[in-house]
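Q: How would the structure tokens look for this protein?
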Amino acid sequence: MGKWLIATGADAAYFPLASELWDSVHAAGAEVGFGVIDAGLTAPQGAWFAERGATVVRPRPVAPAAERARPALAVNLGKLWLDELFPGFDVLIWLDADTWVQDWNAVALLAGAAGGGALAIVPGSGRAWKRQIDVRWLLGGIGGLAQVRSFNFKNGWHARLPLSVCRDIANRALLNAGSFALRADAPHWARLRHWQAHILRHGKPFTSDQLAMALAVYHEGMAVELLPTGCNYVSPWRVDPARPALLESYYPYSPVGIVHLAAQKTMRFDPSVTVPLTGTDGRIWQASLRHGWFQRGMAAAVGARAASVAG
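A: Here is the predicted structure in token form.
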């Protein structure tokens, strides 16, 4: 499949997360390019990546007014320009800064699925999702009256898309743009940017990437490969303390490939924050989900428990 690039993006506040992502990729021992969209890194932070062989780029503004008010938007908006920002690669793999790689097979799945020319991405649905779609019941639900509150419908409506288009994508799964892969020569890039420009006239810049993907895939029928949840895993969590490894919550408790801290706002900025994890040994363990912090914390907790039992 040629040369791969893993791309991410960060500002100064997200640098610790992005550097942990780099560390997790490096720990996998894979020979792969690494690119960073600079949305406000300090000079030493940018140099940290450059010294490790990463390509650091500052993209031209896509929505200048919005990006002046909120510079970190350059990351969300820049995702749809990876083929131009990072030329010379055959497969471009995007991972949000608040993700890290636990099992390299998940990255290989993303690249392999994209190799045929499709958008490789994880849908926001499946057995780990408590609700597949949000609705607002009207008049108590008498007669089945309800208002669709899905991501696709709400954001399509804000973007002033035609009602027929909003209805077409309303009950389709969100496409989670925190982790995706696409061949550099795929026709999707042009269509994603077409929809991005349309959405930015009226819609929300922060969600324009995922809405553009929904429109290209669901409304236009562009090729897509929907991947297992483990390629972009948000919650709930289970842990194997012996390895240690984060696992999917439901049987057969497969190891999570790409850990995504989208639901861990406090932890993203404070790695000392922990969450309870159900262990394969039946115990409850407390640990951070951040790369490095998780491994060290679990090793310390397992050691302390063993010492307590021995004592």
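The mean pLDDT is 92.

Residues 135-168 form one domain.

Upvote if useful.
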